[in-house]
Amino acid sequence: MSAIDEFDARILRQLEMSGRMSWAELSSQVHLSPTAVADRVRRMERDGVIRGYQANVDPAAYGRTTRAVIEVGLIAGAHAEEFEERLRTRVEIAFAAYVTGSSDYSLQCECEGSDGLDALVRWLRADPAVARTETRFILRVVREGADKC
Question: Is residue 144 part of a domain?
Answer without folding.
Answer: no
